[in-house]
């Protein structure tokens, strides 16, 4: 195994888990995740940090996560839910579910890392029922030109050490480009370095 493979498989999942436990992330989860209902598909479920925040209206969760190490970390949380959790060991572009079979799709800090976010979002659109909801909170491109230029400069190096994460994507534009109707969008800085913390949070719906 190469040094890079070792980092991606064994070191990076631990770093992601630690970073996603930040109080800022927990506050966003507490606000967003209880809005999910019905049969839910979570893209990039990671170590299962969203699972404790799902409410009683969820009847099943498909937890899509390509990292075996992160899926193992999520197993104890899945065992403590009141609903069935089924893990899907696939990437965001490879959703295996039937068309119009999902009530809610959830994506939290995931669109920044998916190699082909439009393809993944189109797959989310396909599996949602008509009128189904996409709940999202993502970091991305800052509105200030100076900061955005620095995000452009730093993204290639950052992406190499952060699992493919892009600092400079516009989640709202990606979601709209995949065919969703944006119903609610909040934007602004959260706690931390401004290059990393301009956030997009909201609700989009399949027509």
Explain the overall architecture.
By secondary structure, this protein is of the alpha/beta class. It has one domain (3-205): 3-Layer(aba) Sandwich (Rossmann fold). The protein is 38% helix and 26% strand. The chain has 7 helices and 7 strands; from the N terminus they run H-H-E-E-H-E-E-H-E-H-H-E-H-E. It has helices at residues 3-19, 23-32, 68-79, 117-127, 145-161, 171-177, 194-197; strands spanning 38-43, 58-64, 84-88, 102-108, 128-139, 181-189, 198-205. Strand 4 (102-108), helix 4 (117-127) and strand 5 form a beta-alpha-beta unit. The mean pLDDT is 93.
Distance between the termini: 46 Å
What does the average pLDDT come to?
A: 93
Number of DSSP helical runs: 7
Tell me about the largest β-sheet: 7 strands, mixed
Measured by DSSP, the beta-strand proportion falls in: 25-35%
Query: Structural class of the secondary structure composition?
Result: alpha/beta
Keywords:
alpha/beta, Rossmann fold, globular, 26% strand
């Amino acid at each position: 195994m190469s040094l890079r493979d070792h980092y991606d498989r064994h070191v990076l999942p631990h770093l992601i888990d630690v970073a996603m436990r930040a109080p800022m992330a927990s506050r966003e989860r507490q606000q967003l995740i209880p809005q999910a209902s019905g049969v839910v598909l979570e893209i990039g479920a990671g170590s299962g940090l969203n699972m404790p925040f799902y409410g009683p209206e969820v009847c099943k969760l498909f937890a899509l996560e390509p990292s075996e190490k992160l899926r193992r970390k999520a197993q104890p949380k899945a065992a403590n839910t009141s609903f069935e959790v089924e893990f899907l060991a696939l990437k965001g572009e490879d959703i295996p579910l039937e068309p119009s079979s999902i009530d809610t799709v959830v994506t939290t800090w995931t669109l920044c890392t998916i190699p082909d976010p439009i393809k993944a979002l189109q797959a989310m659109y396909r599996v949602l029922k008509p009128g189904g909801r996409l709940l999202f909170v993502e970091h991305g491109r800052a509105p200030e030109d100076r900061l955005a230029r620095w995000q452009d400069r730093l993204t290639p190096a950052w992406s190499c050490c952060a699992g493919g994460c892009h600092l400079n994507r516009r989640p709202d534009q990606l979601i709209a480009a995949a065919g969703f109707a944006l119903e609610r969008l909040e934007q602004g800085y959260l706690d931390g370095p401004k290059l990393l913390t301009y956030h997009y949070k909201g609700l989009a719906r399949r027509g």
